[in-house]
Specification:
- Helices cover 38% and strands 15% of the residues.
- The protein has twelve helices and 13 strands.
- It has helices at residues 9-29, 36-49, 60-70, 87-95, 114-124, 155-165, 221-230, 252-261, 265-285, 320-329, 359-367, 379-392, and strands spanning 53-57, 77-82, 99-103, 126-128, 131-133, 139-144, 168-172, 180-183, 186-189, 196-200, 214-218, 313-316, 368-371.
- Helix 9 (265-285) packs parallel to helix 12.
- The structure holds pyridoxal-5'-phosphate.
- Pyridoxal-5'-phosphate is lined by residues 59-61, 85-86, 88-89, 146, 172, 174-175, 200, 202, 212, 214.
Length: 394
């Protein structure tokens, strides 16, 4: 039996008529850039997440980049982020000329560790005229935590640190649209808790476009307007450029498709959660939780529905590579997110980190493995995956 890591063909078949009608409407209108579908999708997405403002952009990467550019973060600034994420999380910080400062992760959630963050600040930073400055005399202007695999970081901790030290909090919510967090005892959605939240609608995301697409959420009207200007090369009046932005627009066809798909998102996330529950309970039933480490659900008891949206179902094992090979032989696709922590990427060598600096992320990079996960995955396919994992550890 062949089991794909992700297979959205069934999902498309169910929505094909609706999607085609929406794209036909755009094609008939011949309005492809900054048309009505964009505004409609932004409004629907903002409402869904409970954020006052949403600004559609060309990708999750461009969401991060546009936020950093609009905030004028650059040379002389340091931006703290997780060392274990997709490249864009750190890459965008470097692209604007700021210095990424990496922080290790929690081994069970793979998210940035609040304890490690506080240790870094205590050890290397001090306050100068109300601003936090590090050992290289760079001003810490922002913190960019990523909500990895569909589980929010501990945002109570992140916000506490950002407020205490007076820097901005930009959420990388690329993998977590709809995920909820018990924020100071109320439910809040990923990407709406910080000063800005960045989303990706890369096709494999829980809410995926038919190509690249992204979105930024924020609370401040003026900042939302600045982001709208930023996504058009910093242009306010026609051909009058107030500051340097980019071509970061979300195109009309993608907005139309995303608007069709958005109302189904919660059902898809619920189906992913059910699939995760099946994996976890079956792995436990056959005693495999002694051999592999299963995903954790730290907010499951808080009454939140979308406490985890399982963008990925990630297990870990010291025999990860054997397991992956075994599953591959049995036609089961898996993926490694991520084989290298960010400080191990050749392009970040200039930052001067060395192997051993982030032991938890380095270990996760050696041990983590994403198993097939999508809303429509059959229990039969999952059972086959479970049996093959069991066989490998016999
Ligand atoms: C955590 C994280 N940040 C940023 C991005 C960038 O998003 P995009 O691929 O839409 O540019 C991704 C997408 O894979 C991601 O997973």
């Amino acid at each position: 039996m062949r089991v794909r890591l992700l297979d959205l063909s069934e999902q498309y078949r169910a929505l094909a008529d609706e999607i085609r009608a929406a794209t036909d409407e755009v094609l008939a209108s011949q309005r492809f850039i900054l048309g009505p579908k964009l505004g409609e999708f932004e409004k629907a997405a903002a409402e869904y997440c409970g954020a006052p403002h949403a600004v559609g952009v060309s990708s999750g990467t461009d969401a991060l980049l546009a936020v950093l550019m609009a905030l004028e973060i650059g040379l002389g600034d340091a931006v703290i982020t997780t060392v274990y994420s997709f490249f864009a999380t750190g890459g965008c910080i470097a692209r604007v000329g700021a210095t990424p400062v990496f922080i290790d992760i929690e081994p069970d959630t793979y998210n940035i560790s609040a304890a490690a963050l506080k240790r870094y600040i205590d050890k290397y930073c001090h306050q100068v005229e109300g601003k936090l400055v590090n050992e290289n005399r760079q001003t810490i202007t922002a913190l960019v935590p990523a909500h990895l695999f569909g589980l929010c970081c501990d945002m109570n901790e992140m916000l506490g640190v950002a407020r205490e030290h007076n820097f901005l909090l930009i959420e990388d919510a690329a993998q977590a649209i709809g995920a909820e967090f018990p924020l100071e005892k109320r439910a809040a959605k990923a990407g709406t808790m910080g000063d800005a939240g960045c989303f990706s609608f890369y096709p494999s995301k829980n809410l995926g476009a038919a190509g690249d697409a992204g979105l930024i959420m924020c609370h401040n009207e003026q900042f939302a307007e600045r982001l709208r200007v930023c996504r058009q090369h910093g242009m306010e009046a026609r051909y009058q450029h107030q500051f340097i932005g980019g071509n970061f627009r979300l195109d009309e066809l993608q907005a139309a498709i995303l608007k069709v798909k958005l109302p189904y998102l919660d059902n898809w996330s619920a189906a992913r959660r059910e699939a995760a529950k099946f994996y976890t309970s079956e792995f436990r039933r056959v005693g495999l939780d002694q051999k592999i480490k299963l995903p954790v659900e730290p907010y499951a008891q808080t009454g939140l529905t979308n406490h985890h949206i399982y963008h990925q179902y990630v297990i870990r094992s010291t025999r990860r590579d054997d397991l992956r090979e075994h599953l591959s032989k049995h036609e089961i696709e898996t993926a490694i997110y991520y084989p290298l922590a960010l400080h191990e990427q050749p392009c970040f060598e200039y930052l001067g980190y060395k192997s051993g600096d982030f032991p938890e992320a380095e270990r996760a990079a050696r041990e983590s493995l994403a198993l097939p996960m999508y809303p429509e995955i059959s229990r039969e396919a999952q059972q086959y995956v479970i049996n093959c994992v069991a066989e490998c550890f016999q």
